[in-house]
Structure formats: structure tokens, C-alpha cells
Amino acid sequence: MLHRRKTLIDNLHNPIFCQQLFHRCLRTKSSHGYGDLCRKNKAEKYGEDEEEEGQIRLFKSRGQHLLTNPRVLDSIVRTSNIKPDDTVLEIGPGTGNLTLKLLEAAKSVVAVEIDNRMVEILRKRAAERGFEDRLNIVNGDALKTVFPKFNLVVANIPYGISSPLLAKLVYGANVSPFRSATLLLQKEFARRLLAKPGDSEFNRLAVNMNLVAKVEFVMDVSKRDFVPCPKVDSSVVKIYPKTEIPNVDLDEWWAFTRTCFSKKNKTLGATFKQKRKLMELMELYKPVGLSEDSNLKWREYDSNGDGDEECDSDDGGSDNGISILKGKIISVLESGGFLDKRPSKLSNDDLLRLLYLFNEAGIYFHDQAKGKDTCDAAYAACDDLLSQQV
């Protein structure tokens, strides 16, 4: 197994690096959450997408759906197992329905809210209950803010920032360790996180999340429990960061799972017979026991064609590097019993074992030299979560 995680861990301990990392999350795809607020869109843009609650106007496009059912709020607090000495981090507290209940149970609450109007309401409600000294309000973007110290997360987060926020929490747990995160998420997104091998929804998002954290289902929440009412139901999940991560090079792991789950229901044997994939792996192939000069001979292959067709092992003869590499890959798959296996049915342990067999044979999925001195590996963590690829 690979042993090159030090650079990534060192980077995650660097506040400047973390700020750049999570800023990248905002650029990866458009969201109707915090990104829109940061760009200061005019109110007219939301037009019919706004709704009034009391004397404050709520915007669905900004992910402003306030949970109002007191029984659901109480259930979330109970599920969080808050201790009297806990400092709870809450993302997107809104007007404070959940915040006030958290303050009743915890030592203090750090509430990160981007909307100035919500901040004023939250501050006023906390003061009325005598909680102002135990509430630390951070007025800013949760994806760009360096969080104060906390040891528990409880939040009803805007749907639009679910992926980057999860990436920030679980892959930043070395910087800001916490006991668990109880999160209210879009139901479909929660199902993807909870998917197991063999499930139709099993995907690379679940695989990469399960590498560093354990995810548990808590309960479903009806869309009718929110104001304004969203289009879909929600689910509460509880996430426990793992204290020990498998001793695998993370950038290699992300590249490997990206390859396997590009066609998750296709057999691994069929996936690795594609000429385009073989050509990509040829660039990274390191035959065991050969010098660098000898390795160059293995890269002499015909790059013509679109690469979508399967590579015929008889095409080009035994001297064709790509054909030899294909034989090596098939041999690895056969030796591990993976030739006819489908990624959608493999556990993380199975995938880790297969990656080990590939690396042992000199077959890699990520440019090893590039990963030593760049932040691409950590960026890939957010990109993989953001992609939510099926």
C-alpha cells in the first residue's frame, strides 16, 4: 500500500491552503445557495421565488427554508447527544429555531450565517432568552470561513452547499476534529451518502465518504415542516469521522475510484479493455524491476483512433506496449477474482485490495510526481464530492 499522505495532511493543517481549497468548491459548479449571495444578486432576480415569514422575506433560491416543526427540532437535538460542555457548530441558523434549542443543551454555539438580516434576528432572540454570552455568531460564508473551535456539528444546511460543506468537514477533520455531525440534507442526497454496495444508488460519493467517515440514517423530514415549503423532502443523517483512515495515498485512491465508477455497472474486465483507458494508464505505467530507460519502451504504442473501442490483444503483436499492459491488467484482475466484478457491488475493502494489487504490479492511476508538490489531491476530494457521480 502507498505511504504518501504526509503532504496532504500538512496542507490540511495550513489555514491559507484550506481557504483556497474550499474557495475552489464554490467555483466547481453553480449553486443556488451561498454562491449567489456572495455575488450580491439583486432581489429582483428571485421574483416569484420569495416568500414572507412574519416580517422577513425568505428566498428559496438562497436555500432559506426554516424548519418550524418543534417535534422535529427536539428530535434533532436529542439525536445529537449534546453534552453540557460541548461547543456546537451550526451552519445556516436562519432565525434561530434550532439554535435556541442547541443553546439550552450545550455550553456554547458557534452559528455561521451569511444573511445580515438573519444575524440581527438571531442576536435579538438569543438576548431575549439570556443566551447572548453563549452564542458566537460568525457573519460570513461557511465555505470560506475558518471555523472557531468546536467539537460537534448540528445544522439544517442549505441544499446548495451540501457537497462542499461535507468535504470541508470530513476532509478537514484533522484540522478541526469533531465527535459527530447531525445534518439535515436533501433526501435524495442523503440516500446517495447512505448507499451500500449492491444498491442502485451506490456511487463514488458514498465510496469516498465511507473512506473517512461513517454515515447513519436518523429520520426523514417532510417538506411541509419547512417555511417556505421546498420541492422535496429531507432526511437527517449523522456522520462520524473515522479516527483512523486506511493507509492509502488519497490522490491515488480518488483517481482509481474515478476510473472504476465511470461505468459502475460495467465489469472491471470490460472497463480496462477500453483503448482510451489503457492509453491513459500507459503514461503512468511503471514495470516492476525495470529502469527508467527501459520503461520508455513500454510507452511505444499507436495512439491513433478515438480510444473508445476495445483493444485487441492480438493487434500489434507482443511488442506493442499497450497490449502488454492490457495483459498485465487482466492478470491482476484474474488473480484477485475481480475480472467479472462490477464496481457497484464492491465494498471499500474490495476496492482497497484491488488498488493494492494494481500498484504492486506497477499500475498507477495518478501522476505520482505531480502529487508530491501540488494541492491537486486535496482539491480532488472536494471535486469528487461535488460531482455526485452515479
TrEMBL record:
SUPFAM superfamilies: S-adenosyl-L-methionine-dependent methyltransferases. Its EC number is 2.1.1.-. InterPro entries: KsgA/Erm (IPR001737), rRNA_Ade_Mease_Trfase_CS (IPR020596), rRNA_Ade_methylase_Trfase_N (IPR020598), rRNA_adenine_dimethylase (IPR011530), SAM-dependent_MTases_sf (IPR029063). Residues 72-243 form the Ribosomal RNA adenine methylase transferase N-terminal domain. It is an enzyme of class 2 (transferase). S-adenosyl-L-methionine binds at residues 65, 67, 92, 113, 141, 156. Keywords: Methyltransferase, RNA-binding, rRNA processing, S-adenosyl-L-methionine, Transferase. SMART domains: rADc. Belongs to the class I-like SAM-binding methyltransferase superfamily. rRNA adenine N(6)-methyltransferase family. This is rRNA adenine N(6)-methyltransferase. It comes from Rehmannia glutinosa. The lineage of its organism: Eukaryota, Viridiplantae, Streptophyta, Embryophyta, Tracheophyta.
